[in-house]
C-alpha cells in the first residue's frame, strides 16, 4: 500500500484492498494543528437559548451530533475525505456505504469509451435532433431545483447545445429529466462501462451542461454514486451532523443555497464556518455521496456526468422521509 502526503493509520481492510490517499487536511475540518484540538466553533451547532421542550430536544440532538463530529475530528483518518484507487466492492461496502462516508474512487471507469468520446461534437452527431427535455429558465429563479416542474423545457438536442455554447446556469440537462430522455440518449449507452463492484445493471441519470451550471446546496434521499465523464466539477460536501447550521426549511434544500456566496452567508451566519469538504471531480472519477450529506456542485467546464442509485445493497432511506 502506498500513501502520499501525511501518513495515517489505515484500518486493516483498507490497507489490504485499496491504495487510500488522505485528501483533506486537518485545517478543513477546523482542526488546530498547533494545539492538536478541534476548534469547537467549527464543529458544534450555533448556540441559542431553547424556547420550549421541543426546542430543547432539538438542541440536545444537535449537541449529540456535534459532539460525535468533534470526536471524529480527533483522527484525520476517520474524518478526512478519502480517495481510493480501484476500491473493491466489499471494501466499499464496509468502509463507505454501510458507514455513510463519502469517498472519491479513481480507476473504476478506466477504459470507458465515453471518457474519450463525449465531446459536444460527438454528442451532437450521436443524438442529433432528437428532442430532449432539460431544465431551463434557471438564471434569476432561485428555486429552480425545488420547482423543477416549472422549469421543464424541450428542444432538439442540437438546439440545446447551441443554447449552452456560451456557458452559464440557464439550461441544464439534469437527472430529473432522465426518464424523459431515455430514448434520445439510448445511443450513448454503448460508450459506458460497468461498475459491477458497486452497482446492479441499471442506467445512470445523465447531467449535461456548460461551464458554470450550479446545483444548490441540498441532500438526497438516496445514496448516490456520481461518475464524471467529461470536464470538471467542483463539489462541496457537508456532513449531516452540520444540519443545524444549514437553514433546512424546504424539502431537502438549504436556504443557504451556496456556501461560496458571501451574500448568502451574511444572511445565514451559522453556515459560515460549517465543517465541509471540497473536491474537484475529473473525468474518470467516481464520488460516493451518502444519503443525508449536503452537497452543491458547480461545473468548471462543459460537463457530462452520471448519477447512479442502483447499488448492490438496499438504498431505501427515502421511504420514511418526513416530507411535510
Ligand atoms: O451535478 C450536479 O449538478 C448535481 C448532482 C447531484 O446533486 C447529485 O447527483 O446528487
Give an account of the 3D structure:
It is a single chain. The protein is α+β, with helices and mostly antiparallel strands and 324 residues long. It has helices spanning 12-17, 40-43, 53-72, 76-79, 89-97, 113-117, 120-127, 157-163, 182-185, 262-267; strands at residues 19-22, 31-32, 37-38, 82-85, 103-106, 131-135, 152-156, 205-209, 214-218, 224-230, 233-238, 248-250, 253-254, 277-281, 286-289, 294-299, 303-308. The chain has one domain: Jelly Rolls, CATH 2.60.120.650. The longest helix is centred in the N-terminal third of the chain and has 20 residues, at 53-72.
Which descriptors apply to this entry?
17 strands; 324 residues; single chain; alpha+beta; 4-stranded antiparallel β-sheet; globular; binds 2-oxoglutaric acid
What is the fold-level CATH name, i.e. the topology?
A: Jelly Rolls
Q: What is the global morphology?
A: globular
Individual helix count: 10
Biggest sheet layout = 7 strands, mixed
Bound molecules: 2-oxoglutaric acid
* Amino- and carboxy-terminal Cα gap: 48 Å
Order of helices and strands: HEEEHHHEHEHHEEHHEEEEEEHEEEE
Structural Rg: 20 Å
DSSP E strands, number: 17
Structural class: alpha+beta
Q: Architecture in CATH?
A: Sandwich
Amino acid at each position: 500500500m502506498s500513501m502520499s502526503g501525511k501518513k495515517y493509520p489505515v484500518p486493516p481492510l483498507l490497507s489490504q484492498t485499496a491504495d487510500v490517499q488522505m485528501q483533506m487536511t486537518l485545517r478543513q475540518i477546523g482542526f488546530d494543528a498547533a494545539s492538536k484540538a478541534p476548534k469547537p466553533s467549527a464543529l458544534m451547532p450555533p448556540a441559542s437559548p431553547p424556547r420550549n421542550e421541543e426546542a430543547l430536544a432539538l438542541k440536545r440532538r444537535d449537541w449529540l451530533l456535534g459532539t460525535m463530529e468533534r470526536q471524529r475530528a480527533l483522527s484525520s483518518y476517520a474524518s478526512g475525505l478519502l480517495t481510493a484507487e480501484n476500491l473493491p466492492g466489499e471494501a466499499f461496502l464496509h468502509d463507505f456505504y454501510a458507514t455513510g462516508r463519502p469517498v472519491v474512487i479513481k480507476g473504476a471507469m478506466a477504459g470507458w469509451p465515453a471518457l474519450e468520446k463525449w465531446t459536444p461534437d460527438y454528442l451532437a452527431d450521436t443524438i442529433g435532433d432528437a428532442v430532449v427535455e432539460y431544465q431551463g429558465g434557471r438564471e434569476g429563479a432561485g428555486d429552480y431545483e425545488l420547482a423543477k416542474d416549472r422549469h421543464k423545457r424541450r428542444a432538439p438536442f442540437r438546439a440545446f447545445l447551441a443554447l449552452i455554447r456560451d456557458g452559464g446556469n440557464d439550461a441544464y440537462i439534469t437527472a430529473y429529466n432522465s426518464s424523459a430522455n431515455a430514448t434520445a440518449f439510448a445511443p450513448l449507452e454503448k460508450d459506458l462501462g460497468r461498475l459491477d463492484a458497486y452497482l446492479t445493471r441499471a442506467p445512470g441519470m445523465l447531467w449535461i451542461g456548460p461551464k458554470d451550471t450550479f446545483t444548490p446546496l441540498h441532500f438526497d434521499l438516496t445514496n448516490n454514486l456520481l461518475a464524471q465523464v467529461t470536464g470538471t466539477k467542483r463539489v462541496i460536501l457537508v456532513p449531516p451532523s452540520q444540519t443545524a447550521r444549514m437553514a433546512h426549511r424546504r424539502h431537502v434544500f438549504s436556504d443557504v443555497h451556496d456556501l461560496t456566496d458571501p451574500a448568502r452567508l451574511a444572511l445565514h451566519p451559522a453556515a459560515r464556518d460549517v465543517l465541509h469538504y471540497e473536491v474537484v471531480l475529473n473525468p474518470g472519477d467516481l464520488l460516493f455521496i451518502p444519503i443525508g450529506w449536503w452537497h452543491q456542485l458547480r461545473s468548471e467546464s462543459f460537463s457530462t456526468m452520471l448519477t447512479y442509485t442502483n447499488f448492490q445493497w438496499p438504498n431505501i432511506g427515502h421511504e420514511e422521509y418526513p416530507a411535510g
